[in-house]
Design goal:
The protein is α/β, with parallel strands linked by helices. 23% of the residues lie in helices and 17% in strands. It has an eight-stranded mixed β-sheet with strand order 3-2-1-4-5-7-6-8, sandwiched between helices. The longest helix is centred in the middle third of the chain and has 12 residues. It is globular. The N and C termini lie far apart (39 Å). The relative contact order is 0.12.
Length: 262
Amino acid sequence: MLTGVSLFAGVGGFDLAMQRQGVKVVASVEIDKNCNQVLAQHFPDATQFTDVTTVKGEDLINAGFTPSTGIITGGFPCQDLSVAGKRAGLAGERSGLFWEIARLVEETQTEYFIIENVPGLLSSNNGADFGVVIGTMADLGYSLGWRVLDAQHFGVPQRRRRVFVVGRRTPESSVAEILFKSEGLRRDLTQSKQEGQDLTRETPSSFGQTGFAKYTPGVTTLTATGYKRPEDNVVVGTLQARDYKGVGNQYVAENKLVVHEE
């Protein structure tokens, strides 16, 4: 059985999704007391942690998380990434909590992870922050894919676009099978696609996959870089930009990562 951990759990959106797919949610991390009351009511068997900065991978494993068959999810704070904010990006105090996701993924060596945030992540610091997210997780040994999904195509009467980044440690299977496979959907999307907008209407640069898979049209292939700190602020190049000179050189690839945001 797959086991799941929900970081920045809120009232349990990822928790509910995992539960519906047969994943045993063993732990959640949420600092808001009111949200914790909701989580305790609906997921009484999951261990609750409050501060993501103090939780260790060992704590999650002791709570029942099995990394080899595990999923870590996290919709980290968006305030510093949103186009409505000051856009401090990953250097911001709140959106900078992304690094806690990276730390826990590394400490647990989980098989899967799912990261979620607003589309502003794609354009923050002219795309550099998204390059940092993708590059960091690739450096940890994961093949990755990302896609912008809109809630209006999944039975919710609201236009709510979010970026989902999926990673898998085992390289044999492509993460594209997760992001682009329709069999797992809970409803027929025909009506939503007719009334709303096409599910795949985003430009090619709004979804993609890392260089663990061969390049295909419409998929941006990235090469992992060797940096660990947010202050390095490396922009990851697209396609085959490989002449990276190392940490601290503030290298910008010739084919700069181009992202799309409306």
